[in-house]
Design brief:
The protein is about 35% helix and about 20% strand. It has 25 helices and 26 strands. The structure holds 2-(butylsulfanyl)adenosine (IVH). 2-(butylsulfanyl)adenosine binds next to strand 3 and strand 13.
């Protein structure tokens, strides 16, 4: 065949094959039988073999790479791939919805509900080529900052287009190269088939489709990956590292237009009621989908609102994962293990015969404390019902006793001595926990150090179990503050530490100095002070001095801080040793400041009275908004009232306002004022 004719024929075949791939793998609506598709593919292969000069990396024949790769290169993400906060109940969703509305102010709040696909997220970069775009790199999520370059495996996933035509780009309004993020899942059928094969070959079975999808993507031989039939669902589109399109709904539509597979189970929802309806439906239908889901993801739709809401350290505030609740199984309690935490608390853990529950193998469950164990009447050897909800730690809900499940025989006696140091353990009045009395208990220090260094706290990479144990064994650290005076000489002396790793760890420790006040507060391990509380405290007080000087009342002005938390904070800083620790951290150069939140003052000095039913806001919501903007609310109209906010069926308060000539506004007027606009006349 002449060169020009061959080129034309090849182009035509590629285009046809791409269209059929799209119909089959993305739209689930094939137009031709498989055999016919195979025939076209064979024809293309033959032509390409005869004309190697016409080869192209985005040809449908080029999905499977030749030789196995040697290993995966690491690469940085264009912007971090974050995780999601979880909710497990309608109440938790309502809390989130309320916070979203509060933070969004007058910006629009509507949500997109999507399925939470139980796979692994990947980021696909498409580079401009010949007016269109071509798949250049596919990365796993990795640690969220850097992922592994698994492009050769990604290319075998047939629902991922290898290229996007100039025409489709133009239609979608995408100006140049772009990035698509989404979830790779293994369909249930492929999972079962794969495990059957593995069993036949004497290989261990994968525990669940997610693990096998993850394992598959990291397989070095892309021809194996191709056989596993992974599927990709797209949910984010980025251009120059920024979210493209006006919102999540528009994003999903644009992705569809670009030829990506977008999960069809999605909906725009406006309130918690509608969210719950979508969730109930999803849960009801989850077994008919053909792939695993573990919940529903709710995302604030508008990108402007998303931007206003921003991010916490690990997750966007504008999205949340609703996790389906508990599934259970019966297992045998083989033993009870006691560990000592950083507060000296003794925690019992159930060691179970491994069982498969809702997608994972469970062999441990928390038993909380001695009361929990006696409450259940647990004996070693008992059969127990184990429940797992979302990714929360599995728990034992009851002892099972019938003819197939005889009772255990060995009583469990809670230790009266610390299993780590042998000291006495005590239980404070009214508390459930036993604690080791030894202030120098090695377990306390070890756990404090591990907590301090952990991800999401001071984030000192490389300071894990093994390193911490060595530092303790050699008495190089007696408190977290000692980390900051470690030297290279001390570290190279440790096992498995060379000059380079010593230097890396020191650099990590140094870097942690600028983690900021919220992280330090978490790191100190004050009871009840988790990520969100620490952030709110940091924003409110701006420095550790200001926080340490705060009274209970001042502390409780912070959202989410009640008497229990304020008491814990006061007690913590009342302790001389803790104050000394703070001083030492400060001296070591650890940054203990934060940017103070600017209080809104739009409504400062104004008093509002709410009456009647507003079209959108509930009375509580309106009240919260007014107070958040520095205004006050009152229950009755007087001369001191600045504005009356009236909705439908406003009664006597409205009359009184007219009588006293107090200006009356509606919800719209209030929202305008909240947004800093002048009061309506
Ligand atoms: S949005 C920063 N949407 O869930 C936003 N994630 O628990 C996070 N996931 O790492 C991604 N289905 O792997 C989003 N429709 C969906 C999802 C989804 C599954 C996964 C994703 C993410 C994890 C967070």
């Amino acid at each position: 065949m002449a060169e020009a004719a061959a080129q034309k024929k090849i182009e035509k075949l590629r285009q046809d094959l791409r269209r059929h791939e799209h119909l089959y793998f993305v739209l689930d609506a094939p137009e031709i039988p498989d055999a016919e598709y195979d025939k076209l593919m064979k024809e293309l292969r033959k032509l390409e073999a005869a004309h190697p000069e016409l080869a192209s990396s985005d040809s449908p024949t080029q999905r499977v790479g030749g030789k196995p790769a040697e290993g995966f290169r690491k690469a940085q993400h264009s912007r971090p791939m974050l995780s999601l906060d979880n909710a497990y109940s309608a109440e938790e969703l309502a809390d989130w919805d309320r916070r979203v509305h509060e933070l969004a102010g007058s910006l629009p709040v509507e949500y997109t509900a999507e399925l939470k696909l139980d796979g692994l997220s990947v980021a696909l970069t498409y580079e401009s080529a010949h007016g269109g775009a071509r798949l250049a790199v596919g990365l796993t999520r990795g640690d969220g900052q850097t992922g592994e370059d698994v492009t050769s495996n990604i290319r075998t996933i047939r629902s991922i287009p290898l290229s996007v035509s100039a025409e489709d780009l133009k239609k979608a309004g995408v100006p140049r190269g772009f990035e698509v993020r989404g979830e790779v899942v293994m369909p249930a059928a492929a999972f079962l088939k794969m495990n059957e094969e593995r069993e036949r070959e004497g290989l261990p079975a994968f525990v669940n489709p997610r693990n096998s999808a993850a394992g598959t993507l990291r397989t070095l031989d892309s021809s194996i990956v191709a056989r596993r039939r992974l599927v990709f669902f797209a949910y984010f589109l980025l251009v120059d590292g920024e979210y493209f399109a006006a919102g999540q709904t528009a994003t999903l539509d644009t992705l569809t237009g670009l030829g990506f597979r977008v999960n069809s189970h999605r909906e725009r929802v406006k309130n918690v009621g509608q969210m719950m309806k979508f969730i109930e439906n999803a849960e009801k239908n989850r077994t008919t989908l053909g792939y695993e889901i573990d919940g529903v993801v709710l995302k604030v739709d508008a990108h402007t609102t998303q931007q206003r809401l921003g991010y916490t350290g690990r997750a966007p505030r504008w999205a949340i994962a609703f996790k389906f609740t508990a599934r259970s199984a019966i297992s045998k309690l083989e033993d009870i293990l006691i560990t000592v935490g950083r507060t000296g608390k003794l925690t019992p853990t159930a060691m179970l015969a491994p069982v498969f529950i809702g997608g994972v193998t469970v062999s441990r469950a928390t038993l909380h404390n001695a009361d929990f164990i006696s409450g259940l009447g647990l004996k070693i050897g008992d059969y127990v019902k184990v429940e797992r909800g979302g990714d929360v730690i599995p728990k034992i809900v009851e002892v099972v006793s019938d003819k197939d499940h005889p009772r255990g025989t060995r009583d469990f006696i809670f230790p009266s001595q610390c299993p780590e140091c042998g000291s006495r353990v005590v239980r404070a009045e009214g508390e459930a926990d036993w604690r080791c009395v030894n202030v120098d208990c090695p377990a306390k220090l070890r756990e404090s150090l591990l907590h301090f260094a952990s991800r999401g706290v001071m984030n000192i990479e490389g300071l894990g179990d093994a390193a911490v144990q060595q530092l303790l064994d050699r008495k190089l650290v007696q408190s977290v503050a000692d980390l900051y005076s470690l030297t290279e000489e001390q570290l190279v002396d440790l096992e498995r530490f060379a000059e380079k790793s010593a230097r890396t760890l020191l650099a990590e420790i140094k870097k942690s100095k600028s983690a900021g006040l919220a992280r330090v507060l978490m790191g100190l391990g004050i009871r009840f002070v988790g990520e969100r509380t620490a952030e709110l405290l940091a924003e409110e007080f701006g420095s550790i001095e200001a926080l340490m000087a705060a009274s209970a009342e001042e502390l409780e002005r912070v959202e989410e801080v009640g008497p229990r938390i304020s008491q814990a904070i006061l007690e913590f800083f009342a302790d001389k040793e803790n104050r000394h620790l703070v001083k030492r951290l400060e001296k070591a150069g650890v940054d203990m400041t934060a940017e103070k939140k600017q209080r809104s003052t739009e409504l400062a000095g104004l008093t509002f009275v709410l009456t009647g039913t507003l079209p959108n806001l509930t009375r509580d919501e309106a009240k919260l908004k007014i107070e958040a903007a520095g205004g006050k609310t009152a229950g009755s109209v007087s001369k001191k009232t600045s504005y009356v906010v009236a909705g439908e069926e406003a009664g006597s308060k409205l009359d009184k306002a007219r009588e006293l000539k107090i200006p009356v506004i509606g919800e719209e007027g209030l929202l305008a004022m909240l947004a800093g606009k002048p009061a309506p006349k």
